[in-house]
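ugh ok so i messed up the first submission bc i forgot one of the chains. this is the corrected input, ALL of the components this time, i swear. 535 residues overall. if the numbers dont match what u have on ur side tell me asap before i send this to the collaborators (the ones from the other lab, u know who)
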Amino acid sequence: MAHPNLLPELVPTPDANTVPVVEFSHVSIGFDGKQVLQDISFTAQQGETRILLGPAGCGKSVLLKLANGLMRPDSGQIYVFGEEMSTLPQNGLFRLREKIGMVFQESALFDSLTVRENVAYQLRAAHIEDATVEARVQEVLRFVELEHTLDKFPSQLSGGMRRRVAIARAIITHPELLLYDSPTGGLDPTTSATIIDLIVKQRDVYGGTSLLITHRLQDAYMLATHIFNRATNQIQRSPNNEINQKTTFLVLNNTHVVFDGTLQELQCAEDPFLKEFLS
Amino acid sequence: MEIGELLREKILRVQEYVLLSVEAIVNLFRRPLYLDDIYTQADIIGVGSLPIVILTGFFTGGVLALQSSATLSEFGAKSITGQLVSLSMIRELGPVLTGLMVSGRNASGMASELGSMQVTEQIDAMRALGTDPIKKLVTPRVIATVVMLFFLTIVSDTVGTLGGGMVGTTMMNLDASQYFHTSYQALAYPDVLQGLIKPLFFGLIIATVGCYYGMSTKGGTRGVGHATTQAVVTASVLIIAVDFVISRLMLGIFGG
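and heres the new structure output, hopefully the right one now
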């Protein structure tokens, strides 16, 4: 059953079409003398879902942390909502992060707090009144279909449930930008499919922009070819097998961006690395 | 090249440690102050450490009385055992032993707790959710450790002097009234001041070192183990070194 209260009206800001939500411009970063990302440039426009693909250890997670200001680049500029993240002071970063939700690789739930406290964390920190917090917590937990776990601790949940709580925690403030760091990593195929369904639902219900890392190509294809049907509350193939033009791909390899485009372009790519990667 | 690289890394770590400590202290004057976390930590550090501090204080006072009265009696000065015990406890052993005990118990606890949070990305998650982890995790621990170590030291001094008295009267045939009289009379304000200033520094060392090693943990669960060990070793060595410096300074200021 669809929940009408979960469907906020999206009011695009006047410059939504001109200023990209995320823009990387010639970004490089390295650790301990080893270059991890080299001269990375790409943009994510309002309402776009950008899927980051690439072999393990190619710096995808680092890229996501850069987009959230958790790391600073060695060189280059990162603009998020038009503000330059790489030079913003701490206070500015915290202000900007109010509009960004992040789902971490291993969920990163606070293990000393219950599911309710984890999900409510950001609202509690903002001193929002209890009744509102409780209603919002219930709302997002219903969205991820985990309303029965309110008083459980993360250690009492399965991996897939923890991932869903992490998604609930990230979306409670209805952020304009969502960063998913391998949301299906380490999960079995069935659970992965549930998580991807949830991400498709999030994209089609709340809208907003997202960057998503995945190791599983089928997840990426699913995101590009499926939509959430509000009437049936189910995920289904896009009508006429249409490919979502706002779900685009970024492939990283060996510190560089090797592909930036849509699913059709990716499937037609001639690059030998891409061909092997996709096979 | 190898030595230069190593030195550079050590200096970098010291710099990181100093920056973290300064920020934790500056946060004392910035809102929000997480009172709940301060109380929780004060309970863990203060109340939790009480049994070990009482036990070590008691037996240290006892062994001091035992050893010193035997030596003093050779010079016919057994009657000043109380003076020796109370001065040693209050100036040196109370603060240092309490510091070492709390360091073993809590610097390790902080390093492992924050270290686990670091390797499971909970610290990053906290940042991503708009909370400054230094303000939320480090500053409450610093406040709680400094305040509680101060009071734990007073407990240790008291129990130590009492322990010395008990051992002295029951095992060394000392007169109880004489023991407590000399222990009280021997004390001057500079002695008490010295004994109470030290725990403030030791508390700061324990919390900042514990938190620094926790926050800078790398390399999974093995890293957490390493951070824990390093935190206790570094905090303990620093406590003893800083104790020497403070003692020397105080003797310089008030005369010995």
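quick check: Chain A touches chain B at residues 65, 68, 70, 90, 94, 97-98, 100, 102, 104-106, 108-111, 121-122, 125-126, 169 (CB under 8 Å). that seems consistent at least. Residues 1-14 of chain A have pLDDT under 50 and may be disordered.
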